[in-house]
Structure formats: structure tokens, C-alpha cells
Amino acid sequence: MNPKQKKMLYRIIAAAVLILLIQAAAATGALLAAPVPAAFLYLVPYLVVGWDVLVKAAKGVKNRQPFDECFLMAVATVGAFALGEYMEGCAVILFYQVGELFQSVAVGKSRRNIAALMDIRPDYANLEKPDGSFERVDPDEVEPGAVIVVEPGEKVPIDGVILEGASTLNTAALTGESLPREVKAGDEVVSGCVNLSGLLRVRTTRAFGESTVSRILDLVENSSMKKARAENFITRFARVYTPAVCYSALALAFLPPLVLLLAGRDAAFGDWIYRALTFLVISCPCALVISIPLSFFGGIGGASTCGILVKGSTYLEELSRTGTVVFDKTGTLTRGVFEVTGVFPAPGMDKDLLLETAALAESYSKHPISQSLKKAFGKALDPARVSGVEELGGYGITARVDGKAVAVGNARLMEKLGLTPPPASESATAIYLAIEGAYAGYILISDVVKPSAAKAIAALKRAGVRRTVMLTGDTQAVAQAVAGQLGITEYRAGLLPEDKVTQVEALLAEKAPRENLAFVGDGINDAPVLSRADIGIAMGALGSDAAIEAADIVLMDDDPARIALAMDISRRTVRIVYQNIVFALAIKAACLLLGALGLAGMWLAIFADVGVMVLAVLNATRALYTKDLARRNGLA
Question: Structural domains in the chain?
Fold first, then answer.
């Protein structure tokens, strides 16, 4: 408990002890001989535990926004004192504060769960000065291009590239993945990881405010601003419901007595006012107003500990209704780590020269295929030999290598140049080359399917996803082989980047009513499709700006099994939300009817308010726990 919660607990205990002492004195008859009236004796514990409720109610009236739970409690308890029901007035305010304390502790637990993620925020950076010494500074003060030192046990404060050193990084706070990651000179590192072993010298590539850790923290901290439909419904409901029950209670207090009075019967004003006060206590909407946001907050917090960042409760709710999942292939279902498996030069063309020319033309590209060509060549490349590089989306690259015009890309690029390449192997991706407008040969490159991809597709189908579709710019044969290996029901091959948007548009038109379509991509070149889908999910997006900006849900590692886990978390959270709505409304409706008929007293009203709230909050906190769901998906 924090100091504020402890102070409230002490007030509750003190008030409870005072009430018990007064009750004991009343039971022995000592209260009858007391010179102080019972009302004043009971007023002491009432004010000890409830003075802040009265203050909040008064402020609400002053600000012309009186209709909240504090106003309901204040009217009900002051009314009970006016009717001489001192014990019940004290009990209502006491148990109301017990419920508020319980709720505060539950919310604090949710916040601490997310605070585990917030622990990735670095406190300082070791900035290397020109003379070789180090200065501990605030990460905000470090400029891009500066050199920092990360010692064993410290968090990487800013994104950068390792200049010297080798180490093992713990990325669990970012990815939910417990397996450490080995890094060495030349590797990129992202902020928020913990350096476990060696000393690292890192050249920063971004300012702290633009680094991965800062963007993730901002994303999580602001996730509550995007409310789910259930939350918006409760907000609108409470806005109408609270004044409605206040006016209903007023009518219950005075209309029946007036009717009885006109009919010549005893009006029994005290009895009807007591019923109205009971009605007010029962009607307090705390259970709904508190437990619904708490459920979504818990779901988002639980997901974040699994390396799944949800940008708002609306996306968590929408994910639960996903019936179609569309995948990009490269980097999503496959590792995106290509290997050259064959070099086939045209007659008269040297094999090594073909590979060298392709590697030089692709030397400026960061695409995985380009990386594989450079790796296969295995020698240092001279950038001065390359000029006029132009990247053609969906086709390939054109450049001048040693003064000669070179085109490297797919069969469509060759056709665009008026060339007819020979058919390549059906099980790999063919990269064709043309030099000075003449066909020069092709290189076969193979991608590797992720080990967990097939299990992830099976898990999605078990979760109720009725349709899985793969989109790829690769050939029909490669797409068919990968889809068959993974158990994907449909695929679309040979797509340009703009074709993927068209395909998603068509799939959106075919989906069932009240069903959502989720697109899963690597977040680098899939931003338009991520934005167009009902739910955009970026995979393996550690450090990817495009993913964090375009996607609604960001998976911080590249394991597709986390998609099914995210859906399980979403569906559990939504189930909890609707359980609380139905439970709270059903109990309150029954108790309101009993209270209006005079069959329910203030003690039942306390259960209908505080008891229902405590049970709803307890149920809501279940959304925090995701370990069983992670185990079910093989991620524990």
C-alpha cells in the first residue's frame, strides 16, 4: 500500500473501533445515561471515515456536476442521520470507503504490473568525452552520433550501433522473450535492453525522445486514451443513469406519501424517505464505472508483460472479434533471412562475376535479399564502383556498376526491360540480372519458415479464426509451398506493395458482419496495409518506427505465436467486462426493486453497492494474469 492507502486504512479501522465501542455502550445501557446525544457520538466515526466524501460531494455541487457516487453517498448517509438511523448511516459510509480502498489497491496492482514494463526507462547514460573519460548524464542530453558506454548490469539508454565489445542482452522487458540475445561490434542495439556481460561502446543513432524505449513508454502511457466501446457505453450510461436514479429517489420519497395523504391515509413520510435513501445507496454505479476500465487496463498491462503492446482498449476489444487474419510472408511467417542456394549465369557469363555484380548493385539496400547477396559474395565491396542506384518497388534495383547499366530484380523487371528469362526452381526465389540490357543470369535465394509459424496458424484456428490468408510478392510456386507447409488456407502471390492494399480491401468486403480483419506484417514496408485493416499487428517490430506508428498492436519479437496469445488475452478481457456488466446490472435491478417496495433495508443496499463493486473489481483483476494463456500457447 502507498501512504495514502495506509492513511485510509487507519481511518477505516479507527471508525470501525469507535462504532463498535458505541454499539457496546448502547447494548449495556450506558449510552442512555450519557450526557451527549447518540447522534453526536455516531457523528465522530462518521466524520473520521467520511469527511472527504462530503467535501467531494460539496465540490461537485459547487461545480454544477453533482451527480456522482460521492453525492449519492452523502445524501443517503446524511438522510439516514436525519431519520435517526445513525448506525446504518455510519455503516454505509464505512463500507463505501472499504470498497474505495479495495478498488485503489486493485488499480495500484494493475499499475505496478505495467510498471514492470516502465522499468525499461533508463536513468542515465555514460557519455564518452573527447579526452576518453566518461560523464554520467541524463539520456535527454545525449545527441545522435555521440558515443556512450554501457557497463554490465546497466540498461541500454539510447538506440545505437556497437563500436566495440561483445555481450549478451536481456530483452525480456521489451519482447517478453526470456532467451538472451548475443551482440557484437557492428550490431544494432535498442534502448531498454539490459547488458548482462561485456562492456559495450555504442554510437547513438537517435535522440532519447525518438528512441525505442521512449516511444514504447509513450505508447503504453497513452493507451487508456483510446476507449473501447464497452467503456464508452458505461461513460454514457453513467451520465444518464446517475441523475435518473437521483430524481427517481426524490419521487419515491415524496410522491407515494402525497398520494396516501390525498387518499386520507397515513403518509408515513419517514418510511418512504428511508426507502428513497436505500434506493440511492443501491443505485451507486461504482461497480460498473470502476471495474470496466480496470478490466481493460489489466488486459493491456498483462499483454505488455508478454511483449505485446496494445495502443488502446478499443483495439483490445476489436481483436476479440477477429475472424480473418492476413499475413505478409517475408519476415512474418518466414525468418526473412535469405541464403543464396544457387548461381546460374547465362552462357558466356562468369559465375563469380555475376554474384559480384549483383552484390555491388544491391550494396546500398537494407533489404534481406540484398543482405544475403552481399553475404554470399563474402568480400569487401567498394561503393565507389556503384552509382545511379534506383530502387523500383515490387521490381528490384537498377544501377551503374563499373560504368555499366545493371538491373537486378524479379522476372517482372526482366519483362519490363523486354527480356525473357528462363524458368527457375519452383522452391526458391529467383533474382535475375541484366547487364547493358542483355540477360546475364539468375541467382536462387531461399527463405526459411519460422519454427513456430505452423503452430501459430493452428493456434489461431483453435481460437476461432475461420480464415487465414498469406500475401506475398514472391512467385506462385514459392507461395504455394510455404502456405502448404504452414496450413494456411489461402494465399495471393506475385503482389506489388500497392496490390496488397487492394487484396486487403477485397477481403474486407468479404468478411462477415461484426467480424474484424487483422493484418500481420513486419512493419517496415507494410504501413499502408497495417493502417487499412481493422486491426494492424506489427511483428518483430523492435526498433521499427513504421511498425509503432502504423500498427494498432505491436509484437516486440518475431514469434507469430504471440498473435494467438494476444487474441486469447483480448477475449478473456472482453468476457470479464461483460460478466461484470451483466452481474452488476442484474443485482442492482433486483435490489432497486426490493428497495422501492420496502423489502430491502440499508444493509442489503450496502451489499448492492460495496459488495457488488468488490466482486466486480476482483473479477476485473483476473485480466492481469496471462501466465496460463502464455503456457497454453507455448510461450511460458
Answer: 1-119 (no CATH), 125-221 (2.70.150.10), 308-333+449-567 (3.40.50.1000), 339-446 (3.40.1110.10)
